[in-house]
From TrEMBL:
Gene3D superfamilies reported for this sequence: FAD/NAD(P)-binding domain, Protein tyrosine phosphatase superfamily
Keyword annotations from UniProtKB, A to Z: FAD, Flavoprotein, Oxidoreductase, Quinone, Transit peptide
Domain Beta-lactamase hydrolase-like protein phosphatase-like: 2-110
PANTHER family: SULFIDE:QUINONE OXIDOREDUCTASE, SULFIDE:QUINONE OXIDOREDUCTASE, MITOCHONDRIAL
Lineage of producing organism: Bacteria, Pseudomonadati, Pseudomonadota, Betaproteobacteria, Burkholderiales
UniProt xrefs under Pfam families: BLH_phosphatase (PF04273), Pyr_redox_2 (PF07992)
BP GO terms, sorted: sulfide oxidation, using sulfide:quinone oxidoreductase
Protein known as: TIGR01244 family phosphatase
Organism annotation: Azohydromonas caseinilytica
Length: 555
């Protein structure tokens, strides 16, 4: 646990784990203050989990969340009140500790000389000069004063960001590129389905950001607070400013756990789990192995979500384990989806329906999860009938695999880059922003009508890299993305329905039908999913090796 002392009564730290709370109690802290909103990262325990563990150990826990780089004077005042009211010493935390330090710095603006604030921050390992500039500027961030400038700035160090940086460098070695991402760990999220099915170990899906960052790329380890495209600037957490010549936006999605009442408080216990979070995928497998009878409910929220097939992949692998264990007949399986169909591309539905019937799965469409009562083991759904009427349905469960609603990150939705729905507004073929000539985007955060999958990002990265370099006069012609996406639907251990499609649901198979018919379950497709796709991801996509991903050029 990395604890930094700011005063005798206040220390700050990066995100706490549940185990860290015991260490904090032993160290003598009496109050925990969470300054990080739930759902910022796929490995982040929710505040409800932190609060519950703190109470067990006799600590108070308070929730005062702030978006990165957007700590307000009002929040700073609330922080000061908490410091007055709460038992001390206090340990405040966020992703890195910087938001907590910023709240303290702003709360001290009228009580401590600015140089002393900077000095205290530096002693604790935080650069608070940007905060002081903001105080001196009447609360506003002065974007004219850049802390750094790069030719290409990429926001997001996930699959899309690392892949596009590598594709750029493969075409233009030595290009000045910076990636902005606050995370320490890079995840192979498609592997979490197999973790929840007992095939992969969860540690196999994680590597440090430093291990996957392309050589020569500058890593700015910070969160983005805002975009200032009229000034070619990105404002970071801590009020620092980075300027660019071209901007690439790919921060992924935000999982909105709090949109479902009671879900955040129930995760990881009471039989409530989700393969959409790194630390919960192993709990899925624990629940699946332990269930010998009862009801298992699998949910799917309204679109868009990342990997739309993942909710039912978890269901099929679970059902297959129960079949192999001889208990399937004692388990009632429900699939409750907000959508109107089992899968969005009709060609793959017949094969999936065979497994629905084999496992005895009950399909319920038009049902959106709205509340979870973990102790009572009851889930509440809003059911929408064909004529548009709505009613509430309550369902008991012994296992609940919940998938939260998903949306663009807050700093994207509130930015000039977003469309009316909050997604980055790009041309669906070129991935260039429709209004801002030097801004591009790819991955889950765009409004292009493709499936939000890692396979889509793999095809998008070379297209975007070519078009960005063409804008710089370093490439000829225009590359076009055809909407390709792939969803390896794990229908049983050892077989996969390999769904591959482009814009409009057009089938886009990578292999001839005699070798691999994606509309039928296949052992070869399972081999691809289990053995080929992980190294293709780590050693191909993230290294700029565009195997089966060369862009189509026109002009």
């Amino acid at each position: 646990m990395d604890i930094r002392t700011l005063t005798g009564e206040l220390s700050v730290s990066p995100q706490l784990t549940l185990d860290d709370i015991h260490a904090a109690a032993e160290a003598g802290y009496r109050t925990l203050v969470c300054n990080r909103p739930d759902g910022e990262a796929p490995d982040q325990p929710g505040f409800a989990e932190i609060e519950r563990r703190a109470a067990e150990l006799g600590l108070q826990a308070r929730y005062l969340p702030a978006e990165p780089g957007k700590v307000s004077m009002k929040q700073a005042a609330a922080f000061a009140r908490l410091m007055d009211e709460c038992p001390k010493p206090v340990l405040a935390y966020c992703r890195s500790g910087l938001r907590s330090a910023t709240m303290w710095a702003l709360s001290q603006a009228q009580h401590m000389p600015l140089p002393r604030i900077v000095e205290r921050g530096a002693e604790a390992g935080f650069d608070l000069k940007g905060v002081v500039r903001r105080i001196a500027n009447g609360g506003r961030t002065p974007v004219e004063a850049a802390d750094a400038t790069h030719e290409v700035v990429i926001v997001g160090g996930g699959a899309a960001g690392i892949a596009v940086a590598s594709s750029l460098l493969a075409r233009a070695p030595g290009l000045d590129i910076a990636i902005i991402d606050p995370a320490d760990v890079h995840y192979y999220q498609p592997g979490w389905t197999l973790v929840g099915g007992g095939v992969f170990g969860v540690a196999d899906t994680a590597r440090t950001i430093g291990a996957v960052l392309p050589r020569g790329v500058r890593w700015i380890k910070s969160a983005v607070a805002a975009f200032e495209p009229e000034r070619d600037a990105v404002v970071l957490d801590g009020c620092r400013v980075v300027k660019y010549r071209q901007l690439v936006v790919c921060p992924g999605l935000k999982l909105d756990w709090d949109a479902v009442e009671g879900l955040a408080e129930s995760l990881g216990r009471h039989g409530v789990t989700s393969n959409y979070r790194y630390d919960l995928a192993p709990y899925t497998w624990e629940l699946v192995r332990g269930l010998r009878g009862g009801r298992a409910v699998f949910t799917q929220p309204p679109m868009p979500i990342k990997c739309a097939g993942a909710p039912q992949k978890a269901m099929y692998l679970s059902a297959d384990h129960w079949r192999r264990s001889g208990v399937l007949q004692d388990i009632e399986i429900d699939f409750r989806s907000a959508g109107a169909a089992l899968f969005g591309v009709a060609a793959y539905v017949p094969a999936l329906m065979e497994y629905v019937e084999r496992y005895g799965i009950h399909l319920h469409f038009g049902q959106t999860l709205v509340a979870v009562d973990g102790p009572a083991r009851e889930a509440t759904f809003r059911r929408t009938a064909a004529e548009g009427t709505q009613e509430t349905v309550r369902v008991g469960f012994d296992l609940l695999h919940a998938v939260p609603p998903q949306k663009a990150p807050d700093f994207v939705r509130a930015s000039p880059l977003a469309d009316a729905a909050g997604w980055v507004d790009v041309d669906a073929a070129t991935l260039r922003h429709k209004r801002l000539a030097n801004v591009f985007a790819l991955g889950d955060v765009t409004n292009a009508p493709n499936a939000k999958t890692a396979a889509a990002a793999r095809k998008q990265a070379p297209v975007l890299a070519h078009n960005l370099l063409a804008l710089r006069g370093l490439a000829q012609g225009e590359a076009r993305y055809d909407g390709y996406g792939s969803c390896p639907l794990t229908v049983e251990r050892g077989k996969v329905v390999l769904a591959e499609f482009g814009y409009g649901g057009q089938l886009a198979p990578s292999f001839p039908k005699w070798l691999l018919d994606g509309t039928r379950p296949s052992r070869l497709a399972w081999y691809l999913k289990e053995r080929i796709l992980p190294p293709l991801y780590w050693q191909g996509m993230l290294k700029g090796r565009e195997w089966l991903a060369k862009p189509e050029l026109v002009g």
